[in-house]
Amino acid sequence: MPFPVENPLAARLLADPDMAVALKPFMKGPASVKNLALAQGLSLQQAHYRVGLFLRAGLLVSAGTLRRRGRPVRLYRAVDTDFRIPRKLVPERILRALEGARSWQEEWAKALEAHDPGYGAVLRVFLNEEGLLEFGGEGEPDILAESFPPFVNLWSAGLHLSREEAKAFQRELLALYHRYAPLSSARQAEGQPRYLVHLGLAPAPK
Length: 206
Hints:
This protein is of the alpha+beta class. It is built from 9 helices and 6 strands; from the N terminus they run βαααααβββααββαα.
C-alpha cells in the first residue's frame, strides 16, 4: 500500500522531479550522503541540503552507521518506495509543470539548444507522408544519421486506431521502455550520458 503523505514539505519535494530523484538512492536501501552525491552528480553540500530536507519532511529515517577509520558514516533509508500525495498539498506551479510536462520539455529544449543553437528557432506545422499533422522545426535534420545525437520529439495531432490497436500500441511502447530501463543503473556507473525519455498516449477528448 502506498505511503500516505500528509506533510506539505514532503508533498512538494516528491512532486518536484529535480528533488524527488535525489530520494531514489535511499529507496534502494541504506545509503550515505556521499552515495547520493555520487549517484546524482551533486556536490557534498548539495547532497547534504537534500538529505536535510528529506529528514525534515519525514521521507528519510536513520539506518545506522557504517564503521570506517575515523568518523563513522551515517546511513539513511527512505520510509517507503511508493507514496500517495493529495493534490491539494502540491503547489500549483509544480502541479502545472507535471501535468503539462513542462519540466521535460524545458530539459529537452536545453539539450537540443546545446547541440545546435539555431535549431528550433522556427516552428513548422505540417502534414506528413502518412497524412498526419506534425509539429516541428524548420529544416528538420536527418535525426537517424550517425552524426546526429539520439533526439526524438514527435508530437502528432492524433492517430485514429481501434481500441485493440491502441492497447497494442500502448503495450509495445511500455515493452520498449522496459527493455532498456534495466540497463540504466549499470550505464550510470560506467559514466554513460543520461537521456531524457517521455512517452505519452491518451484518448483525445471529444
